[in-house]
Amino acid sequence: MRTRDGVNKYYSITELTREFGVSTRTLRFYEDEGLIHPERRGRTRLFRSADRRLIMEILRGRRIGFTIAEIREIIQVYKDPPGESGQLRLLMKRVEEKRDELRQKRKDIDDTLEELGNVEEACLTRLAEIGVST
Questions:
Q1: Distance of CA 28 to CAs 33, 59, 80, 133, Å?
Q2: Whole-model pTM over 0.85
């Protein structure tokens, strides 16, 4: 829906699903979770620019591994005092936690790969001992 000056004031659910490559079910889920609050006109959902920005941030948060609960917390901190500064501090804290989590996963993967290499080497050694060629 366009305003008189041609600027989009509202976005339909179809426009946003196409823009972000998500399903209508995803947007309805975010609405059910209280993350976005589209306007309703009958059965039609109309999304404002603010909803569109939130969807962008929600999807970004999901891509970097935040849970819906973490995203909700970050959004809520923005709405409550101290507002944006509190939100940014919380976001930085969550980013560092996510980074630490990923570093640990990387270490665990490296350790597992090393152990798999050790097992493979032991198997090859034993096969050679029993006279089986590989």
A1: 9, 14, 24, 59
A2: no
What is the b/e burial string over 109-120, where b = at least 16 CB atoms within 10 angstroms of the residue's CB?
eeeeeeeeeeee
Q: What 8-state DSSP symbol labels residue 39?
A: E
List, for residues 55-81, the tens digit of each pLDDT value. 999 999 999 999 999 999 988 888 878
> Which is nearest to 27 in space by CA: 39, 38, 41, 42?
38
Long-range contacts of 60-65 (CB under 8 A, 24+ apart): 64/95, 64/98, 65/98, 65/101, 65/102
What single string gives the DSSP state of each residue in 51-70? HHHHHHHHHHHHHTT--HHH
Half-sphere exposure at residue 24, Cβ-oriented, CA atoms within 13 angstroms:
8
| Distance in angstroms (rounded) separating the CA atoms of residues 21 and 56 | 11
